[in-house]
Write a structure and sequence with these properties.
The complex is a heterodimer of chains A (about 220) and B (about 210). Chain A is mainly beta and about 220 residues long. Chain A has one helix and 14 strands; from the N terminus they run E-E-E-E-E-E-E-E-E-H-E-E-E-E-E. In chain A, strands 1, 2, 3, 4, 5, 6, 7, 8, 9, 10, 11, 12, 13 and 14 form a 14-stranded parallel beta sheet that branches. Chain B is an alpha+beta fold. The chains are: A mainly beta (about 220), B alpha+beta (about 210). Chain A: This is Cytoskeletal protein CcmA (Bactofilin family).
Chain lengths: ~220, ~210
């Protein structure tokens, strides 16, 4: 490419058409009207993109909604992101992530809550739960779901704010090395499986070791 | 028309000795196409199935090639219907990939050193397959080649099926995206149905 790409900077309240840019920076309340591609993409504040976002580095501090797909090598979220689907190499999130479709990444690290209507597929999944989370399916090599450290008082107020009820719901969880806490799932399949405190699992299929915490419930265990 | 034989994910992993993690990784790298993951509900809940022949051939190839290539390089080689292979006309007949009859009929005007694209070769290969089963005549092979030439590229590498339909001796070819359903008036016969992704896979293994 010999043509140099321009930067897009929005401050305050504004909107912009989509297009190809070098750096995109949105500060304030901003709206992008169609697909955007850029090398870096930074949101501070509150914004939305009507189309897809394709970038190398996506950073969101605040709240951002993407109607289309989010495609980025690196995704950093401090705040909340709603998106159509995610395809990334690394996802690091503090806060919330919702996706209407699949989420694919080599590394997926999240502290907070998530809501994936499709498949969450990542090499390494590390989740520190702070709120009610859902995924239709979870698949990967290493899957760790822990209850967040500061979430112990959440149960007390969860009757008022259901989001705060720390629990992960999934139909199927499949991986090589799985450790779960506070998870409700129909089926968990894996090589090494550790079912921790607060889990309710319909069926566990495991090849290797299976450890079940006394405060967990597993209806059926199958070893293949 | 027989339904494709399916294999459950669990059986697949037992049979091939790969792990869940590997399977998910290959899916992420798009080594295994999305539409091979067939979700069905069984009495044990949701389970994923795969078209047996396709997935076994694919996993075999991934395992064989994995040692020499990185996963990303592999992805380029395996994405459905996007093969790079090009072959010369005389090679095609010499290596018995496409029969001489088909080549002489469909490629009559091309000199021996013509290099065919993978798409063209695929059309020849499809014609060859149908001729071998005796379901199609040589005249109809022309129609097939024409259909493929005009419309196959419109699918842009997505999987599609080629249907061969006949009614009262009049034959037609259709290219359909998958999955799709089609209903015909009575008296129409679907003579053959070829999955292009499967065919491409077969052709590719023949070329290697």
């Amino acid at each position: 490419m010999d043509r140099t790409l321009l930067d897009l900077n929005l401050n305050g309240i504004g909107s912009a058409a989509g297009g190809e840019y070098r750096h995109v920076r949105l500060d304030g309340v901003c709206k992008l009207l169609s697909d955007v591609s850029a090398e870096t993409f930074v949101v501070n504040g509150h914004g939305s993109a009507q189309g897809a976002v394709r970038t190398k580095q996506f950073t969101c501090n605040g709240k951002f909604t993407i109607k289309g797909a989010l495609n980025s090598e690196e995704v950093r979220i401090d705040g909340m992101v709603d998106t159509g689907s995610v395809n990334a190499d690394r996802v690091t999130a503090n806060g919330g992530l919702s996706s209407e479709g699949d989420v694919e990444s080599e590394l997926f690290e999240l502290t907070g809550y998530f809501d994936v209507e499709g498949l969450l597929n990542a090499g390494t999944i590390k989740i520190s739960l702070h709120g009610g989370s859902r995924a239709r399916e979870i698949g990967g090599e290493i899957i760790r779901v822990r209850k967040g450290k500061d979430a112990k008082w959440n149960k007390l107020v969860s009757w008022a704010i259901p989001r705060l009820n720390v629990q992960l719901e999934a139909n199927v969880i499949e991986g090589d090395d799985i450790e779960l806490e506070e998870t409700v799932a129909a089926v968990v399949r894996g090589n090494r499986v550790v079912i921790g405190k607060g889990c309710r699992i319909g069926k566990v299929e495991h090849k290797g070791e299976l450890v079940v915490h006394p405060q967990a419930k597993v209806d059926e265990r199958v070893r293949n | 028309m027989t339904e494709r034989e399916l294999i459950s994910k669990k059986e697949l992993l037992e049979l091939t000795g790969i792990s869940y993690g590997q399977l998910y990784r290959w899916k992420r790298k798009q080594l295994i196409p999305e539409d091979w993951f067939i979700r069905k509900s069984t009495f044990t809940g949701q389970e994923t199935f795969f078209p047996k022949e396709l997935i076994l051939a694919r996993i075999d190839r991934i395992l064989n090639m994995k040692d020499d290539l990185s996963l990303d390089e592999l992805a380029g080689k395996l994405s459905p219907l996007l093969y790079e292979a090009k072959l010369r006309k005389d090679e095609l007949s010499k290596r018995n990939i496409v029969s001489r009859v088909v080549l002489e009929r469909l490629g009559a005007r091309d000199p021996d050193d013509t290099v065919y694209s993978f798409e063209q070769t695929l059309a020849f290969f499809a014609a060859d397959q149908l001729l071998l089963t005796g379901e199609m005549s040589l005249d109809e092979a022309d129609l097939l080649a024409q259909t493929m030439k005009e419309h196959f590229s419109k699918f842009e590498g997505k999987t599609c099926e080629l249907w061969f339909v006949r009614k009262m001796g009049v034959s037609t070819f259709l290219l359909l995206s998958v999955p799709s359903e089609a209903y015909f008036e009575s008296g129409t016969k679907v003579v053959a149905r070829l999955n292009m992704a499967e065919l491409a896979e077969q052709l590719q293994t023949k070329l290697n």
